Amino acid sequence: MSPSPASTALLTTDAPNPAMWTEAQLRLLDGVRHDVAPLICSEHVVRVSPDLDIWDAWPIQDADGTPAMLEGGTVLWMALGAPQFLDPDERHGHARIHLLARSAAGWTHLGPALADGFSPGSREWSGSALLARDRSTLVLFFTATGRRGETTPSFEQRLFRAEATLERDDTAYRLIDWRGLREIIVREPAFYMASDAGSGAVGTIKAYRDPAYFRDPVHGTHHIFFAASLAGSSSAFNGAVGSAVALDDSLEHWAIQPPVIAADTLNNELERPHAIFHQGHYYLFWSTQRHVFNPHGMIGPTGLYGMVSERLGGGWRPLNGTGLVFANPAEAPKQAYSWLVMPDLQVASFVDAWGSDGADANVRRFGATFAPMLRLRLDGDTAGLAEQP
After folding, report:
1. Residue 267 near residue 288 (C-beta atoms within 8 A)
2. Which residue, 89, 130, 205, 272, has fewest beta-carbon neighbours within 10 Å?
């Protein structure tokens, strides 16, 4: 299928070199106050399911990024889920995408989203989901990690697209008739390092994951941003934000683009990158953790980071000069993670190692549920937390 004229113009980006997130920018944090998320306490840790741990989550969205509202005000979400393990890090090797419903009554777990045996990976990692105007056809972009049937889990990551039909019976919503499984955005070695090039240790895994859909409201083009690792780097800390543009409105055919942002020599993982458009500016956000910064340089806190530009094709600048939007509090530096900013500036995340300063055994306490929603304030190149009601 031939690309449309609008998308053809984007196949060669006007900024072939990524915007760099550098140690010099991060060092501006020294001696400067930054916003801090409120402390998560026991009353905030309300599990979605007693026998399921959940973490990275995203709403099923309309094309404009707004969570899709269904009958009675219900919004469906997807989240990575796994059984409880003594060591929470083991969950990554057992992750599946689960379907959840949020209504006035709270959260309801609806079971695994994908049909058993449908995914081409040995586990499913993060993505994004789009609901069509018919309120029935769903498109899921997701990460297939490893290969189905492998005896030893690998860390190969591939980006896939699939469709399903959203159905509702007397009790709940469900996704049926999974179809159209297609690998999209096949890695370009000139741009992106192989995702299985690193070790399997937490914090050292290379990235080719977390596809996040974004429709440009100005030009009507369709984009995916994803976590990646920069090709050709001499550093083990080569995290990047990758990108692709759709060749047609079917969202089946994509052209890979060079990295948008790179943190070469600074940070290994720019996770779950995603974009919103707000008051004439594009904002590109990502999450990262303290332990994936280069230990021989400036180390930032675990938090939400981002850049801003007046155009998608380039001109990206770190928010607040440093990239940091807000961090976890010092008394609980790992309390939450995987922040997702929605168009109304609400911010979702999950409860990680809450209630601990990291100096005791509680550092392994895993909340495994949604964290309290936060809200951002954005004003051009400045960003932070809005006053909580």
Report:
1. yes
2. 89
